[in-house]
């Protein structure tokens, strides 16, 4: 398996030319990198005007590996070839490196780039990417991979320190400014050059004078060494200082995973991607396995889109019953700055809420709480000046009894846990369970199997008044915000709950209709695509120059999207016993409209080139119709996904495999026909 690395953008608040002067001091050897023993120049080229300088070096490395492994391999040192292409005119340095030793067994490639910051020409950006592919290594492939990744990441961490070390060294020598390259025809006179040198020397001795002359590379008001997020870093890139300030301390490999998953989402979701904090949550939940994180995240994005979860805080008003009897609410923050949610579960009539509202309304309310939690995390990150990506939940079980173990209520609770675990990973920082009664172990036995191991480790359970002693509530929450019902002095505005009046109960039929309405009010439709059985929809166009628009997500597998035109209408699908033309499965409908007797080019024609869409992609597009008639949009099976995030089979997949075929893809789509004038107006 090929291991890949992609760095964030590292910003040096110094001009490109000064950074290059510092960089060159790394050769022929660097005492700050003990493994970098020596380097020899293999070839060198300089253009006549001095703008281009290309140098190739052979670098000698002493890899920190077990002596036994070195003896088996028969080498003491590893050699790399590094080619540096410096362009003073464009102010860029491109570095290409590859291994010379064991190149038939191990393939290592690295690319680094120094460029001018896009919005500040006195700053320099640095990025690097690398790949490692171990074909074979005497049966020690796994060991060599671990050694290589450990060595590489340790050197990545030192990269910025090394440049800053040589910058300080230059400053001590009186060099704080290096003039830019200029073409020979307009090269500065010797008097001007001398003047520049004098200015450089003056800047080393009198920093204030240098600032007045505009020779300082630091932004005014920000002393050297204080990292600030660099304004103006391109939206499609992540700045290292931004990551540290808003996302936290990540290892180089964790940064790489975040950047690579983010890039993939930008490419496949047309820029409509989650916030960086949320991408990071999915990565953490899957131990930074990109493939697994990508799969569960795409499923979550599709779910959010289908049920319009992004708009739930703005468009959904909780029923009055919830506002009166749901005993939960936000209450200040804990000692770490996390938003604090208080839930008085023991005082809540779960049976009454389920009987009055139904399972889906309760679920939607919990989703709105989670969405509010995400918003509060963002606010607290700004307020406290450090990354806050999760919240603390305080659950008071005083009053919990067998009534809370009513089966439909427990079923609703398990459903809520399942949905929250799948779509809001790593949002719970800590769960404090207080005043747990004797009946609690029964409830815990029912719900704990549905809770992720990482989440379960964040639970702290206190029986009786244990929360008041050492290691209790005061370790996590400031005394002044402890709620009054727990013996604190802070008035807590969380509703007290109580029994829901039976007059508000609804019949099972009413609740079922309400539940169905809540989750089927969506503009999107779902469809299953099987090998040999595409899904097709018919759109009749009366006026030429109408515009067919589409928006679809590929939820599972890879598909091919086609658009056809026919002058005659296809026959409606037959409802035969074998379901050869129309299939209903748990994952969505499957309909074929194009008759098998039809011939392409005679009975119907292709009006757009086939579009291959990969699993997880979100596709939007439009087609301006040239003729009236019948247009068929087709989603056709292409291939199955390469991997899955879990080995556990899903119920609908098992049913579908028994019903038709194991070769199945899923799409969620929305189409609309609009007039060409309306389409142009919406674009403008």
TrEMBL record:
Residues 214-234 are annotated as: Disordered. Gene3D superfamilies: CRAL-TRIO lipid binding domain, GOLD domain. Pfam families: CRAL_TRIO, CRAL_TRIO_N, PRELI. It is found in: Cytoplasm; Golgi apparatus. Keywords: Cytoplasm, Golgi apparatus, Immunity, Innate immunity, Phosphoprotein, Signal transduction inhibitor. GO terms for cellular component: Golgi apparatus. The keyword Nucleotidyltransferase does not apply. Residues 520-673 form the GOLD domain. GO terms for biological process: innate immune response; negative regulation of signal transduction. Interacts with RIGI (via tandem CARD domain); the interaction is direct. Interacts (via GOLD domain) with SLC18A3; the interaction is direct. Interacts with SLC5A7 (via GOLD domain); the interaction is direct. May play a role in innate immunity by inhibiting the antiviral RIG-I signaling pathway. In this pathway, functions as a negative regulator of RIGI, the cytoplasmic sensor of viral nucleic acids. Prevents the interaction of RIGI with MAVS/IPS1, an important step in signal propagation. May also regulate the SLC18A3 and SLC5A7 cholinergic transporters. This is SEC14-like protein 1. The gene is SEC14L1.
